[in-house]
Amino acid sequence: MNRRSFVRLFAVVGRELTTVVRTRAFLALAGGFAAVVAVLAWTAGAVGYVPLVLDLLTPVEVLVPALALAFGYRAVLGDEERGELDVLRTLPVSRSTFVVGVYLGRAAALLVAVLVPLLGVALLVPLFGGVGTTVIASHAAMDSPLLYLRFVVLTAVFTLVLMGAAMAVSTTAGTTRAGLVVAVALGVALVVGFDAGIVAGLAGGVVPEGALELVLALSPNSAFRGLVLETVVGGVESGAPAASPVVGLLGLLLWLVGSLAVAVVSVWSGDGR
């Protein structure tokens, strides 16, 4: 990518961030997420960093997809409705530059909305008892803020992947109504659909047990959950199957690259720039 392409990319990113700052819906969604995380952490009693991760894991799996899809499904559809996409087609901005720029702008704002509350509630741990917990006997002496930071980093990766999926929805849906329907359907599939399908596949013999690790990595939520359980929580007997860290990371990378590729191909036709 040459210097001019970088300039155009950052121009798109800046434009998108400016749009986000002016969007009251984003502020409302971000505030709602922060409030839910704070209430959950406070009511659960953050007696340690690993217990706090266990308290927040399921809510993050549910809320982050909802937040990403609600915030991102109109990222390109909004430009199309306002006629701005037609103007952008006439400018020397390639499809990939436009999509990546919009993605980076939206993703940056979403990361702030997700990570700031998660980092903030970590301050409750010293208040509720500090480092070290008897909840996990085999790891009672290993509870540390570094483990919680690892959870936050994995959540950031999860958030980036879901914003990529939202971009794919925004570029393939023809109308706002269609985009909303697809976003809701994808959100339900991510939160419950894929896991339910895996369980049904195992029960019906369609999914062999030897392929379970690979199948779990095909779902962003399952891949994220597996990464947290294996690299943060460690030896906790959660009873939930999980993909290995390497396979989970590859699954998330496949979702991100695939979603952005779909968005680039779908955003507009023309001279193939």
Name a few traits of the molecule:
single chain, 273 residues, mainly alpha, 12 helices, 76% helix, 0% strand, globular
Task: Characterize the structure shown.
By secondary structure, the protein is mostly helical. The protein has one domain. The chain contains twelve helices and no strands. The longest helix is centred in the middle third of the chain and has 28 residues, at 145-172. The radius of gyration is 20 Å and the shape is globular. The two termini are 13 Å apart. Residues 133-141 and 235-239 have low confidence and may be disordered.
Radius of gyration: 20 Å
Low-confidence stretches: 133-141, 235-239
List the domain count as a whole number.
Answer: 1
Number of helices: 12
Count of strand segments: 0
Q: What class would the helix/strand composition place it in?
A: mainly alpha
Biggest sheet record: none
Distance between the termini: 13 Å
The rough form would be described as globular
Order of helices and strands: HHHHHHHHHHHH
Overall mean pLDDT stands at 82
As a percent range, the share of strand residues is under 5%
Helix content: over 70%
Instruction: State the oligomer.
Output: single chain
